[in-house]
Amino acid sequence: MSYNIRKNENDKLEVEIKISQEKWEESIEKSYEQTKHKYTVQGFRKGKAPRKVIEKQYGEGVFLDYALEIAFADEYNNFLDNNLQIEPITQPDVKIEKFEKDGIVLVATVDLMPEVKLGDYKNLTVEKSKEKIKKSDVDDELKKIAERQARFVESIEPAKIGDFATIDFAGSVDGEIFDGGTAQDYRLELGSHSFIDNFEDQIVGMKVGEEKDINVKFPENYHEKSLAGKPAIFKVIVKKIESKEIPEINDEFASNVSEFENLEDYKKDIEKRLDEKLEMEKERKVENDLIEKIVETSEVNIPKILIDKQLDIFIKDLEMRLSYQGIKLEDYLNYLGTTIEKLKEERQQQAKDTVKTRLVLEALIKKENMIVSDSELDKTLAEVADKYKKNVEDYKKSLDNRTIAYYQNDILMKKMLDFLKSNNNII
């Protein structure tokens, strides 16, 4: 088997594949064996008619199309196996250049993974933040924890920002009740801005049992076009007001929410955890700054197909995240007044940047010959198995190839980041 390779501009590759007469005959025979059950021939049970009989009844070319698929697939896969440096990113577009008794010549055109011209990735200088945890940070964290421990008690006082008001409401535009504008026993946090602007502000000051007409105006870009920009009146009755009762931050509070008996020890623990978190954030910032500098000075011609694939990943990821919240992608798009096409258009640059970053990092890893050894993978899997209290061998057997590839990629990324941090200047 012989191949003639021609590389075109824009990272396209043409491969001329010559299929011998002998190989072609083998492919036709395979095509016959794999498809003969589809043909009905009088006097024979399905799948039992000889090839010549089927060809006579259905035409000599009856097995040719599938034979071409078989012949091409065998030779194309063999070509890739013997040219591992070639990385196609599309399925081949195949054309017949020659079809004669002594053999066949096929030409396959594929898009290749683009070449990356790496910028400088050593001896760069990035600054690491000198930020430290302050006393006010610890106090703010304590307040957040106390907020989470708050309980709600019914109040007879006028509603205020921060309270939860249980209300019935009915909205109308031009005197007509509109769909979705009516609810009963709706629990609304005042100040959450979850309703139209000024709606919650007008509930402030109301008491339990009080009724009121609330006047608002829908935003011009409101997702429901029939309501966009229109004034509306909501008839509201307050049925219950709950005030947030936040516990006092003292020794008793510390002992109730932590393993510590006094507030001072609890504060020290919070400071330690905040410091560890800040240190991780500073490290991530250093890593991102290094990658950003390398990507910025690297050159790569990004094919549209890779950008489109990345946009598809964005959409699938969005759809999955919405499904966790019980929201359909279609409903989400309708709410925003947009479409998948517009969403993709808005994310074009983000997708391009994501693809470029991935290609540059892959090129860097390849240039530095970074690999994941069996011992490195075994060590990681042992740590994960131990974390889940599982026998490491049983855990390994339970993993599919995709999960193993995930762990290998994670190890590789850590090695790459360690390499960057040790070969550049962090001040």
Keywords:
single chain, 427 residues, alpha+beta, Alpha-Beta Plaits, Chitinase A, domain 3, Trigger factor, domain 2, 3 domains, five-stranded antiparallel β-sheet, four-stranded antiparallel β-sheet, 13 strands, 47% helix, extended
Descriptive account of the structure:
With 427 residues, this protein is an alpha+beta fold. It has three domains: 112 residues, Alpha-Beta Plaits (2-Layer Sandwich); 95 residues, Chitinase A, domain 3; 164 residues, Trigger factor, domain 2 (Orthogonal Bundle), CATH 1.10.3120.10. 47% of the residues lie in helices and 21% in strands. The protein has 14 helices and 13 strands. Strands 7, 8, 9, 10 and 11 form a five-stranded antiparallel beta sheet that branches. A four-stranded antiparallel beta sheet has the order 1-2-4-3. A two-stranded antiparallel ribbon has the order 5-12. It is extended. 15% of the residues are buried.
Q: Structural class of the helix and strand makeup?
A: alpha+beta
How many beta-strand elements? 13
Number of helices: 14
Spans of 5+ residues with little confidence (pLDDT < 50)? none
The CATH topology label of the largest domain is Trigger factor, domain 2
Shape: extended
CATH superfamily of the largest domain: Trigger factor, C-terminal domain
The average pLDDT value, as a whole number, equals 91
CATH architecture of the largest domain: Orthogonal Bundle
Biggest beta-sheet profile: 5 strands, antiparallel
What order do the SSEs take from the amino end to the carboxyl end, as H and E?
A: EEHHHEEEEHEEEHEEHHEHHHHHHHE
Q: Please compute the radius of gyration using only Cα atoms.
A: 33 Å
